[in-house]
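Two quick folds needed for the group meeting slides. Do the first one here.
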Amino acid sequence: MDKIKTSDYRVEQQVKLNEMPTYTMLSSTEEKLKERLRDTRKKLSKLQDVFYAHSKYSVLICLQGMDTAGKDSLIREVFQDFNSRGVVVHSFKTPTLKEKQHDYLWRHYIALPDRGKFGVFNRTHYENVLVTRVHPEYILGENIPGINDVEDIDEKFWESRFEQINNFEKHLVTNGTIIFKFFLHLSKEEQKNRLVRRLTFEDKHWKFSPGDLEERKLWDTYQSCYQQAINKTSTPEAPWYIIPSDNKKAARAIVADILYDELKTKEEVQYPTLDPSIVSQLEHYKKLLEDE
């Protein structure tokens, strides 16, 4: 089975999405991929426990991708061995009235993981340079000074947002948040197959919305917006990883391996040590309990 090299997926220079692969098997079988994921997530869960006890870093995992890219199932499969006290998942939908009373980053900021914890954003602050760019009329609902019409939303506006997002993430990293940004790269043909399955199998009907087909018509526009967003915001502090996602099992294995390989490099993350005065009395405290 191929060894996953994090650098093969990390965006370190300008990319063209139409030249990036959407499918891989990692020279393996589906059963081997499942076994690989089981092994990695056990190691991740142990690492999570150390991060929780160390309590100086938080970890933010951002998942973006077209509809049906596999975000929900990836979260379920990769993090199922985590202690629930140490991981929180947020799925960001259309902003609420209260959220619209604040700037677009506010609802993401208040959802950030505590020190020692992992946070997973299922769709992220990048929706504000993706969906809103494809549908700029949504920006008008943010009541931004100087933005009174769609014509006011020019290229300078989007450049400013990219800068704001980069500054937001740099601030988080400087203050102890480790950020992973995964783009689940799906082919248009595979999306079609997955939408057909939603219409075919009764237990998947609930996932389907007619709006999915309307958004699919805008595929090329979305791809262009994703490409620019990735190229503008993949930084040394918070790089993007482009994950081939036509094969869900391989995508999950890649994401899990990247998380583990990167997090284990934080050698200073260790279980806290007890005060020597307490250590010297451990046998005494143990005897007190045994003699109760």
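Then this one, please, same format:
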Amino acid sequence: MTTDVDQARDIRDEDRLDVERLDAFLKQHIDRLHGTPTIRQFPGGASNLTYLITYGDCELVLRRPPSGVKAKSAHDMLREAHVMAALKPHYPLVPAILATCDDHAVIGCDFYVMERLCGIILRRDLPADLGFDAAGIRTLCLGFIDKLVQLHQVDATLPGLAAIGKGEGYVARQVRGWSDRWRAALTDGTATCEDVLGWLADKQPARETAICVIHNDYRFDNVVLDAAHPLAIVGVLDWEMSTLGDPLMDLGGSLAYWVQADDDAVFQSFRRQPTHVDGMLTRREVVAYYGERTGWSVDNFDFFEVFGLFRLMVIIQQIYRRFMLGQTTNPQFAGFGQAVGYMGSRCRRLIAKSRL
């Protein structure tokens, strides 16, 4: 197997850390650390930032929020670490939490440190040297969905988990909350999309499918594949938005990123995972398989699909607003304004075809 595991890069200037202070903190809270650490940055980081910290042959991963003004409830590192620690005994794919810090004298913000799960993370294109045929890719795809089903079957009433969400009324809170975030993130020239907001408010289900632990950002680039046996998933990352909520909201959020082979050229340009290759299920097939595996009705999935796209549109707009305000200089964010416009149009096309 020659495929590289997920690679860290040099730290962007705006994201640098105080190495001396961080080193002192880590050695105080984690055993077996010696020498001076090497710190690099993983290339994602449109939301929270992720770093690889290396002490000899010991690798750690640090998560912290981005620079700039943030919503009070967003980028809560200590909450994310708490959710992961509570879920780990019941869902082994969660990385182990090694340390948390609320002392801003260390690196200027809250952060946590976790074990590094070393393996393959799929990005835009499937590495050719994995050697998957269509049957293998289908196996990988079904396993990906099965791990989401497994998460949704965790007993949400267990101690430590019951307190991570607010229970029933989740869908209504999400529609209201993300609509408010959208309006707060608008910039000059952005369409208000009040028609989309109105449809979501009107068509939301009266009650949840169930209340369970949901990931809220479940994508191929948030799962880790075993480097030796890449059809096996050994980890799930990025629990920032995990909570207790409706499982179909989780699936709808995941499918907002699911670009399939017959999608239009603009949506194809957004693709960040290899969901278009032969053997991957289509969005419709994913929904049907999920319904079969869980026994939950997916007959009215249109609402969840549109909401997933809308939520992604809000996230993109929030990042674009930070870019326009000069709170981040990452050049990949410059085109996010056009992406937001397309997502609004895509929501409208789905609404026009909806049976609801």
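Slide caption for protein two: Residues 39 and 53 are 5 Å apart (CA to CA).
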